[in-house]
């Protein structure tokens, strides 16, 4: 048999097993059935929802063997561990990006979206890893028409939370550096029957900014305001951070002032970006002005801002002022934000 045809049959069989497994987690009740395409027929007994983990234990060896990951997955799927079961479901999706040859590319994307849709419908809210795996599966496809069709199907299934899902798909494409695909989905949002929101625009601004396409980022920001959306502090911080990285300090100051004039309160991260930007450019006067402005607004500085400012002043030859700032930092240390305050809490 053609190896690629055999691969396709195996993947379809895995998808069928996976679909039944997901359905067993919901309130569906199944009669005995057969899963074809495994070489031999596999009887799937009657399982009620409370026996979901028994189903995981049954299907894990079947599906894992097909995708060539039997040992690592089968040993991890515990009957009574929901976390492990969910991890198994996610790993199934991840395997679809490992097609054996570019000939299977179209099949790979199709199956990945099929599994993703099953997860979305029967498994509930999905993890970021799941979205990233979907984006990686699309890395080698240039069929924009098919991609939009798949995303439209996902959007329809996700209603009324379709904009949340679309935002996460755009974010995942951005994280995987598939910028054009992220922009393609963004530009087709209205065709999905959805309306973008501030989160959508913030995501696109960050994707463009991190890619160094700051002119496009600024144009998209203008479009955002023209569409009637009100930028928030995340919007402005995204602009400032990416403009700082490419040395556009003049524009940083413009947007910082616009932020203030719009009534959007700058936060600690806003000031940190601005102080470091002007300090490193040699404009210590503006860096100090921003530092004092931050304290006047009752925003407690972080230890990183103090250390950065001390280093900036020393390099500028302003040793006495650097020592003064250092003493202020040491006397305020117990009240300063440190590394523990910036660590992301596990959820």
UniProtKB/TrEMBL annotation:
Keyword Protein biosynthesis found: no
Signal sequence, renumbered to the chain: none
UniProtKB keywords: Repeat
Keyword Repeat: yes
Source taxon at top rank: Eukaryota
Residue ranges of PPR repeats: 162-196, 197-231, 232-266, 267-301
PANTHER family noted in UniProt: OS03G0856100 PROTEIN, OS12G0638900 PROTEIN
Homology family: Belongs to the PPR family. P subfamily.
Protein known as: Pentacotripeptide-repeat region of PRORP domain-containing protein
């Amino acid at each position: 048999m053609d190896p690629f045809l055999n691969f396709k049959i195996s993947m379809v069989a895995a998808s069928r097993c996976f679909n039944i497994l997901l359905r067993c987690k919901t309130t569906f009740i199944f009669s005995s059935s057969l899963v074809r395409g495994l070489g031999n027929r596999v009887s799937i007994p009657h399982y009620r929802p409370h026996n979901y983990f028994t189903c995981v234990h049954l299907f894990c060896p079947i599906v894992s063997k097909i995708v060539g990951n039997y040992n690592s997955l089968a040993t991890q799927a515990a009957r009574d561990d929901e976390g492990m079961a969910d991890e198994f479901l996610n790993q199934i999706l991840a395997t679809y990006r490992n097609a054996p040859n570019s000939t299977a590319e179209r099949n790979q994307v199709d199956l990945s979206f099929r599994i993703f849709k099953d997860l979305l419908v029967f498994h509930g809210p999905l993890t970021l890893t799941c979205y990233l795996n979907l984006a990686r599966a699309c890395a080698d496809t240039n069929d924009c028409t098919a991609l939009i069709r798949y995303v439209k199907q996902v959007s329809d299934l996700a209603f009324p939370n379709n904009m949340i899902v679309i935002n996460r798909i755009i974010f995942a494409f951005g994280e995987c550096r598939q910028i054009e695909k992220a922009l393609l989905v963004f530009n087709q949002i209205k065709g999905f029957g959805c309306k973008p929101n501030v989160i959508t625009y913030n995501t696109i601004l960050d994707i463009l900014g991190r890619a160094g396409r700051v002119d496009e980022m600024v144009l998209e920001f203008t479009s955002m305001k023209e569409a009637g959306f009100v930028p928030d502090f995340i919007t402005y911080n995204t602009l400032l951070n990416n403009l700082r990285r490419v040395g556009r300090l003049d524009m940083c100051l413009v947007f910082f002032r616009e932020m203030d004039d719009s009534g959007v309160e700058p936060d600690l991260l806003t000031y940190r970006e601005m102080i470091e930007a002007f300090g490193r450019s040699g404009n210590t006067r503006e860096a100090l002005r921003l530092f004092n402005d931050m304290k006047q607004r009752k925003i407690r500085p972080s230890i990183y801002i103090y250390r950065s400012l001390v280093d900036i002043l020393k390099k500028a030859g302003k040793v006495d002022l650097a020592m003064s700032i250092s003493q202020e930092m040491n006397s305020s240390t117990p009240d300063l934000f440190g590394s523990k305050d910036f660590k992301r809490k596990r959820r």
